[in-house]
Each structure stands twice: as C-alpha cells, then as structure tokens.
Amino acid sequence: MAARAEVSQATAARALGGYGYVGAASRRAVLDAAQELGYRPNNVARALVSGSTRTIGLVVGDIENPFFAAAARGLADVVEEEGYTLLLANSDEDLERERRAIDVLRTQLVDGLVVAPVSGNDGDHLRVLESDNRPLVLMDRAIRGLQVDAVMVDNAGGARTAIEHLLKFGHDRIGVVSDADEISSTAERLRGYRKALRDAGIEPDPGLVSVGPSTRAGGYDAARVLLERPDRPRALFTLNNFMTAGAVRAIRDFGLRIPDDVALVAFDELEWTTLVDPPITVVAQPVAELGRAVGARLLARLRGDDSTPKRTRLRTELIVRSSCGPGG
Amino acid sequence: MAARAEVSQATAARALGGYGYVGAASRRAVLDAAQELGYRPNNVARALVSGSTRTIGLVVGDIENPFFAAAARGLADVVEEEGYTLLLANSDEDLERERRAIDVLRTQLVDGLVVAPVSGNDGDHLRVLESDNRPLVLMDRAIRGLQVDAVMVDNAGGARTAIEHLLKFGHDRIGVVSDADEISSTAERLRGYRKALRDAGIEPDPGLVSVGPSTRAGGYDAARVLLERPDRPRALFTLNNFMTAGAVRAIRDFGLRIPDDVALVAFDELEWTTLVDPPITVVAQPVAELGRAVGARLLARLRGDDSTPKRTRLRTELIVRSSCGPGG
DNA sequence: GTGAAAGCGCTAACAC
DNA sequence: GTGTTAGCGCTTTCAC
Predict the structure, then answer these.
(1) Where is the HTH lacI-type domain (chains A, B) (predicted)?
(2) For residue range B153-199, what is the model confidence (pLDDT) as tens digits?
C-alpha cells in the first residue's frame, strides 16, 4: 500500500480514513504520499470490514417514466450529498423482476433500499429484508401490512379534487383510464374517485373503469374501450402520465375534441400538458420532493434513527387549465 | 457459514459459486442447506478477491432528461441480462461534478464505466481511467483525442437533413436554439447546420445561434433572444429536447404561430411532439438502441475483447410533420 | 500517537 | 471430488 512509502499501515489507514488518532506530521506525510501515488481507497475492502458500502439501492417500475426519473433525481441529489451512490434497478412493473432486483441489490450489500413496489398486496420479499437490518423505505406506493417508512402522495385526495372538478362541469359519468389496482397508488386514486362520486350521490359504474398496462399503448387501448362505448362517457380521468399521453392520442384518433366532446383531467403533471391545445387540467404531484423526502428518511435511518416507521403523505395540487370546458 | 451444516467450506463455495468440481451429492446438500438458512452470497467479499463487483457505473448529465433516461434503460436492460447492476450518477452537465462522480464510481470498483461527458475537450479525468484497466465507453458524446469506445448518433448528418428540410421551404435565415458547444454532440449538430447552409451557398450568421443551458428555461431564453430581434428569423432549429419545449413555449408567449410565423425543426423525438398542434418535425434518434449498443460494447470488453477502440454512429431519421409549412 | 496482528467472507491454488 | 491454506485491502482492538 501507498502508505509504506512513509509510515506504517495502520497510521496511513487512519490518516486516509480520517478516524482514530494520528499525529499532524504523519498525517501530512501520508496524505502527500497518497497524492503522489494517486492512491484510491478500495471501497470494496473497506465495505467488507466496515459493513457499509455507501450505496443505496433503488427499484422502480421504469426509470424511463418521467415520474420515476424525477423522483430518482431528487433521491440521488439528497443521498449523494452524504457520499452515497445510487444503485439502480428496473422492475418493469413485474413482481418477479422486482424480487430478482431486490435480491441482486441485497447481494451487493446496499446500505439502504428504496422500492416503489409493484404490488400493494404481495410484500413477502420485502418482509425478508427486515432481518437484513438495513433500512427500507417505500416510495410512492405502500404495501398492506408492511410496517416500514413510506413516502407517498395524497392519491385519494388528489383524485377526489379531480373528480369534484369534473362534477362541477356537470359530468356524472366519468370514465377512468387506469393501470392495475394492485399498484397501491392506483388503488388509492380509484378509491378517491369512487368516494367523490358517492359523496355527490352518484353510484360508481365499474364499467367506466378501463384498465391497461402503465404504458402509452396501455392508455391508448384503455381509452379506446371507453370511447367506443355507445354511451361514451363525456369525461375522462387518466391515472398516470404515460397513459395520459395514450388517451390524448386516442381521443384525437377518434376525431373527438377536448373539452367539447370529452373533458379530461390527468393525474401527474408533465411538461407537455401545458403545450398541447387545450392545455390539460392536471393533479400535480411534488415529484422531486417525493424523492428528496425519501432520501431524507433513509438518511435518518442510516444515522441510527430507530423510531417507529413513518408514513408521509405529500400534498397534490389541482392545476386548472382548459381541458374540462369553458373556464377550466 | 451455512456450508458447515453439511460439508467443507471450499466445497460449499464451489457449489454456490458454480465453479470447480463438485460431486452431485454434495452439491445438493449444500444447495439445500443454503436454501434453509436463507443464505445470501456476500458480493462484497466475493468482489474483494475476484476483482469484479458486477456493477457498471453510469454518469449522465441528468437522469431526468428523457434522452438519458431512455438510454439508461436500454443500457440497464442489456447489462442486467448478464448479471450486472447499474450504478448511477448525475453530473448535472458540470465538469467538476462529473469528475467527482467518476471518482466515486472508481472507488466503488465498478467493472466498467459509461460516461456521457460534459466536455468534448477536457478528458484528463477520463484518461486516468486507462490505468484502471477497466473498460470505458463514451455514450452519445466523444472527447477529442481520447481513443476509447464510443457510441454516438449521426449528429452532423441529422442536423444537415433538418436544415435542408427548412431550406426547401425557402428559409435562408435559420435561428438555432443551442446549448454549450463544448458538448460534443452539440458541436457536431452545429457543424452540420453550417455545412448545410454553406452547401446551399449561404454564409452562416453567428448571430443566429443562441446559446443557453440545456434546460427548458435555457431553451426559452435562447429562443426569446432570437424572437426579439428586429429581423426575427422565420425558422428555428432546436438542438435538444428540453430546449425544444422551452422554445415552443416562447413562440407561444410571443403570440407567434407555428409554422406561419416561425417554422420549427427539433433535434430529438419526444412523445409530446406529436401531441401538440401542429405536430413538430423532428430529427429522431434511436435512443434506446444507443443505450443497448453501449451495453453491448461494454459487455464485449468485459468478456475480454481487446481490439482497437470502436466509434459507432447510429443513424438519425427526419420525421416530417407539420411545423415547417404546408405539407411538412 | 503509532505499530502488530487479527479478521471481514469469500476465491484460488494446491495437496490429497 | 474435496479439504487446507493463503490471501484480497482494508479497519480495528490492543499493546507499546
């Protein structure tokens, strides 16, 4: 090791690692020598003995989704500040792939794990992590019966305000373009949707909820099913960003006009929703903050916080534009 | 270790690691015991001795940028198939942060590194990597004088076809909304732009190239500068996706109409470019394929390929829509 | 304040 | 085929 150039190994390690007692003189000597020899500490060796890899594992449905990308960015910003690096894995919204991803990450001995779980019901593979004694925080999605930190968004509330907005325009038959309600955030949004209807004295019609995969194509197809109905709903509520794009495309392809033929409110704000004509009324989520809050929670745990698990809800905001009718 | 439950340590390691000779009987025994005890191999220890961490480092300007996100996805898909995990870092398009990110990744002993370098000129921090003897592949952007694998897009060609398209509509004064030409891909696009003009007998006017940071706001401001000119150009060419969004916003805010008041061609295809009115003519890049090609190159190196560095160019495609005038 | 030595959990020779 | 043994490059007692 570089240290030998000057003093002993332990001393060098202490100087480099910045722990224990080192004389000012030896410290200088070591640091200089390290500089000269271009010494890089070997984090793998360090991790083996210290038990910490300074990495955080992140498992999301698809990093290509702007929602996850922005959250990942927020998370990275926060944890990198403390010297952690993000290990990334895509689950592709598939439970089996999620399991494998978590397994690989565990094997890499990440110091902490962030997961946006595919399923709100099936959490056994996450329950196992408890024995690892490494912090886990759930991002955007919860798992029934799993008592761990989770930072989410007020999905039910966001959906409710969206529906109430549509209600104001006299829509009582509102179609929903949804992905699988196994995803906990989706389930919550659907719950908010039904609640808002019932509160208005309307019994939700299950036939108006059209389900597809969380992709553009999924949104297109799910919207198509709704638009093809003889009693086509005059209002649509889309539950996530990719599907919104697909739904807008479908509406166009049917030669329908927003908002005259069909009103639209979308969950999740994206750049382009302001660029299209008409600009779309959306339920905006604080995405970057979601990532940052998750990071903060994780860092707290990493620092030894062992309070009982916290579930945090971030507020959403209805941004009224022009996709529902005159004046909104 | 779990193994003791049955046989010796070395044998267990062999069975678990799948290397060396192991009798069928002992293999079974070991595997069963491992199963029972919920044994997880410790990749850190394994890495320390084997010299391989099964991780790939990725440094991009901003994972939130759909371009990088899609490329990252393609890369992840390819390398995960071979059991590698992506270690992610953002450089924020800042050279100093890029240096630090690379340093951290080296320290984590990634088996290979993928970088979309901020600067096409300053590559000393990457040159150092040669001594690491770990493969490095450049993604989307090259560095002058650095002989390493690189997978890029035909930026000059793409820009040329874009400009030729605009030329066909009679535009001879084409404004460019650009980010820093230190970014090699940007420099190439600008080169293609100038070449196309000169080939048409037009001397490029440097005043028509407006530069800003690679963000929506940067695009907005850069476009504004152009649109405020008394001799406002009647055509705009935007060099990347975020800036395109900003430019479109600026055009709208100026009360200008596409394509009547200003024609537009954008580099990089995004979902929303087909959703706005009019849909925008773009130079599409094979982004996912870019990531996959980078992954393939890296895996080849990891497998021992030591041929001379390859520079690959992926083809772009002009997708004509309606942002330049009647019929395109 | 500094050095010697043990050991983190594995792999890789090398004997048997 | 299987066991023994020696490290990988660090951190960490524990003497001095």
Answers:
(1) 1-50
(2) 999 999 999 999 999 999 999 999 999 999 999 999 999 999 999 99
